[in-house]
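[step 3/7] fold_predict: job queued, chain A
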Amino acid sequence: MNSRQRRGVIILVLSVICALGAFVGVLSVIGDVKSKVGPEVTAYRLRTDVQPYTALSTSQFEKISMPRRWLSPTAVTDLAQLRGKIAVTTLQRGSLLQSDMMVDRPALRPGQQEVAIMIDAATGVAGKITPGATVNVYATFPGQRQGDPAQSKIIVTGARVLDVGHITALDPGADNRGQQPSEAVPITFALTTIDAQRITYAESFAQRVRLALVAPGSDTGVPAKDRTYELANDK
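[step 4/7] structure written:
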């Protein structure tokens, strides 16, 4: 073997050694990355903004994959956890769903029942009534006989709101007096039997039913003498 051939062999051997070194280096980098990233797991990201106290559903989220080590301990990895939950604050589009973003929907207490009625979307709710809120329910009635004054009555005090539905357009021809609202929202309450009867009666026969939001911790009781109001008796 002459000197030129020896140099060729040496260069070939060095090339093979360099290639093996590069290959080992790539494997080392890949292994290091894998060790830092770790296995991927499923997470869920919001497709759109969600308002506070809104019931959560699977359609509001999209499935993504991300490294387990980058996922917080409170991240939700199973949408079955949404069952019976509502948002506790405004959830922003693109945010990862966390367990501390939601709470259980308010439940019935012993002796209570769910009752849903339609409330004027503009004056009765005005975007302020949310699940978990406590409200007093007011209703206005015409005089029983011609010439009798109209009255405003507090029908129910301390009613607990379980759910607030979506705004629904009402049939404009359903009332020829034109006094009924054009849009209403179904509100579900947790009520005793007698309060359920009162609020159902008001929905059926009152000219208007309105909700008054009660501040947390406030006394919702109203003396009997203050439950009925007539303009003529206002002093």
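[step 5/7] annotate
The longest strand covers residues 151-164.
DSSP finds three helices and eleven strands in the chain.
exit 0
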